[in-house]
Amino acid sequence: MMNAQLQNPITMPIDKLSRPLHDLRVSVIEACNFRCPYCMPADKTPDDTILQNAARLSFEQIEQAVKAFVKLGVRKVRLTGGEPLLRKNLPELVKRLSRISGLEDIALTTNGSLLEKQAFALKQAGLHRLTVSLDALDADIFSQLSGGRGQVRDVLSGIEAAESAGFDSLKINAVIQRGINENQVLPLVEKFRGTRHVLRFIEFMDVGNCNNWSMQDVVPSKELQSLIHGLWPLEPVSANYRGEVASRYRFVDGTGEIGFVSSVSEPFCGDCHRARLSADGHVYTCLFAGKGHDIRSELADGDVALHEKLSRLWMNRADRYSELRHAQAKQGKKIEMYFIGG
Ligand code: SAM
Ligand code: SF4
Ligand code: SF4
Questions:
Q1: Average pLDDT of every residue of the chain
Q2: Any idea what the CATH number is for the domain that residue 87 is in?
Q3: What atom of ligand 1 comes closest to residue 173's alpha carbon?
């Protein structure tokens, strides 16, 4: 017997905790040219940590999956990785997605190292928004945080290229770790205050199994907020929409906004309406999931099978890892961040 929600395609599924599906992250590639120690530590992810090309979904399959997700309520897609700009002909995928009716927002998260050459083509293809990860301005600290593979000047050139290409306001993501790059917080704020870009500080998370995470290395957002407030007073801004992951603040002197993503100190599972699709065609209903759901056979079987599979997956979802983090600290294997992209 078909579930009532599946019989009526207009009804959007909700999961077991009454959360609708609204956002989708699509990892277009698991490979990366960086080895950030909090994500892909070099000693645990050798250079051949990649899928064979053939194991990656094609652009046709990604488009088919996104269309199915849009029918289930998705309005925002974020392309990510690994490093998404390593995926060949990425603007071609953006172009395909930009034609999907009902999809309101297409964004991309990148480490920025290859952005200088690609920003214009991505904008032309219809990409709406860009997030650039930047954990330090100091050249040595940046290099260390990229696993010795990146240069901060390339990322800054990428940001400039994105501005010239017509991206209005970028998000700049910085993960701060205790004793590693805390001293980069104020220089980063100073650099982006008064620009149209929004800097967001992200708490170091216990994603995957190989980043040696410890609670002691997490710098809680509250601490960063009061550090910044001491120099440049801040006041809260109400969320743009329900489920917005960053708490937003504005500088009282009118020089823009800043955000904090506090997934460790203030979990937001109650409003989590995000699914993730890995480059090899598995759907994950939580960033900390141990197991994904293979949708490749449904992609081959056609849209009805795909719609049913995705609806069912969402309706069976009960994830709330971050709310239970402390109770389940020693739980089993989790998917690595570079497979599903943050
Ligand atoms: N390679 C691209 C990049 O770095 O922007 C996209 C993929 S990366 C996995 C997406 C985001 O996840 C980045 O902003 C990165 O800083 C963040 N990230 C990775 N590992 C993290 C961790 N352990 N805790 C918090 N954020 C993390
Ligand atoms: Fe690569 Fe991004 Fe992970 Fe760094 S955070 S290793 S750039 S995927
Ligand atoms: Fe969503 Fe899982 Fe993160 Fe909770 S822990 S906010 S359910 S991704």
A1: 92
A2: 3.20.20.70
A3: 14
